[in-house]
Write a structure and sequence with these properties.
The protein has helices at residues 14-19, 31-44, 55-68, 75-82, 84-91, 107-111, 113-116, 140-149, 212-229, 261-267, 273-281, 315-319, 357-368; strands spanning 3-7, 20-25, 101-104, 121-125, 135-137, 163-167, 172-181, 184-195, 201-206, 234-243, 246-253, 296-302, 307-313, 324-329, 336-337, 348-354, 372-376. It is α+β, with helices and mostly antiparallel strands. Strand 7 (172-181) and strand 8 (184-195) form a beta hairpin. The longest helix has 18 residues, at 212-229. The protein starts with a strand and ends in a 6-residue tail after the last strand.
Length: 382
């Protein structure tokens, strides 16, 4: 199998340079430009499939495969995955557990939700990623505040509403890692998720602490979802809430999970999702036989109060702690810590393994507790 890289220069890593036989750097990485460049490249140096692990380019890659007639998930499928409102429309009235939702194109739409969708509700960008701009709305006063604060313009996306409102799902949240082959969806792992009150993810645990019956319910719902959306090939990462009505889908992605979830699955003794992905891309037979997890793995993220970092330490101690496979600390003296509003606002993490889920989670959290970061109120936040 040969590999080529097409994309922005700043995203080209040394690993890309080692693996890619062809490198095409683009100063303009707008979706139209990426598609045009890939089609032109295919005319000179044909390739079998375009793939990305970055949400930003999933739609562009789907267009490339569609225009060139390459074997991949259908364009409509990837569009639904990247457009939360379109996904809800495709699922409406089908076998997948229904989640009440409404598109929001204006402040007037937003103000009318209390009477149509009801409260509480979740409001999120139709094309959002990384837990950014997700709002839990519990009363009409908050609706009025958001009506005056949010941007309702849709530059370049005129066919899609900028915001989607959904019913507030109550229950434990999980992500489901799967791999599809010829339309058959194989369960790889169920990941337990931990979030802040404003929905920023701060931890993941494999395997999730659920019963076998709950696992079967979750797996069946995700298979129904992927079939309904037309997913045919490759990895998928689906987020669900286990409510008292059963599993309800939040969203899905035709890529492996982020936040080192693929590493958690591998370390827990399950599947190597990255290896499966490259085996699939190479057209080789896939080993998707179910296997019990031999251990457990968890990752926990460091979150800091808003202010200026004045001292940093403890990284070596965290890396040397029991069960720790890796630990990273991105905070540096002089950094200004922003409010915690997305995944990009976390300042470090520790990944640990253990003989069971409770132990792995404890070891990861314990390692993060060894980080020593002092934060003083900055002039901007004082």
């Amino acid at each position: 199998m040969t590999i080529g890289y097409l994309g922005p220069k700043e995203a080209l890593s040394e690993r890309h340079r080692e693996l890619a036989e062809t490198v095409l750097l683009l100063p303009d990485v707008s979706p139209d430009r990426v598609v045009q460049a890939a089609v032109a490249l295919h005319g000179v140096q044909p390739f079998d499939i375009a793939v990305t692990m970055n949400d930003t380019y999933l739609q562009a890659v789907a267009r490339i495969n569609h225009e060139l007639g390459l074997t991949a998930n259908p364009l409509e499928t990837v569009t639904a995955v990247n457009d939360k409102a379109f996904m809800r429309e495709m699922l409406r009235g089908g076998e997948v557990g229904q989640v009440a939702s409404a598109e929001v194109r204006s402040a007037q739409d937003l103000l009318g939700l209390a009477g149509t969708l009801g409260l509480p509700l979740i409001l999120k960008p139709t094309h959002g990623t990384g837990s950014r701009q997700i709002h839990a709305v519990h009363d009409e006063a908050r609706l009025r505040e958001l009506a005056g604060e949010l941007d309702f313009s849709t530059p370049g996306q005129e066919t899609s509403a900028p915001w989607l409102a959904e019913e507030f799902l109550i229950g434990r949240e999980f992500s489901v890692e799967t791999f599809s082959a010829a339309g058959e969806h194989h369960l790889l792992a169920v990941t337990e998720k931990f979030k802040t009150a404003n929905f920023v993810e701060i931890g993941h645990l494999v395997p999730a602490r659920i019963t076998a019956e709950q696992r079967d319910l979750i797996a069946a719902e995700v298979r129904r979802l992927l079939t309904a959306l037309g997913v045919q090939e490759g990895p998928a990462h689906t987020e669900i809430v286990l409510t008292d009505r059963g599993p309800r889908v939040i969203e899905t992605h035709t890529r492996p999970g982020g936040d080192a979830i693929v590493e958690l699955v591998r370390l827990a003794g399950g599947f190597d999702i990255q290896g499966l992905t490259f085996t699939w891309l190479a057209g080789k037979p896939l080993d998707l036989i179910p296997r019990p997890l031999a251990a457990a793995a968890a990752i926990w993220f460091l979150t800091l109060p808003e202010g200026e970092v004045t001292a940093v330490g403890g990284l070596d101690e965290a890396r040397a702690a029991e069960g720790v496979e890796s630990a990273f600390l991105t905070a540096a003296v002089g950094d200004l810590v922003p409010p915690l509003t997305s995944s990009w606002d976390r300042q470090g993490d520790a990944l640990a393994i253990g003989p069971d889920a409770d132990t792995a989670l404890h070891l990861a959290q314990q390692a993060v507790g060894l980080f020593e970061v002092e934060v003083a109120p900055s002039t901007a936040t004082a």
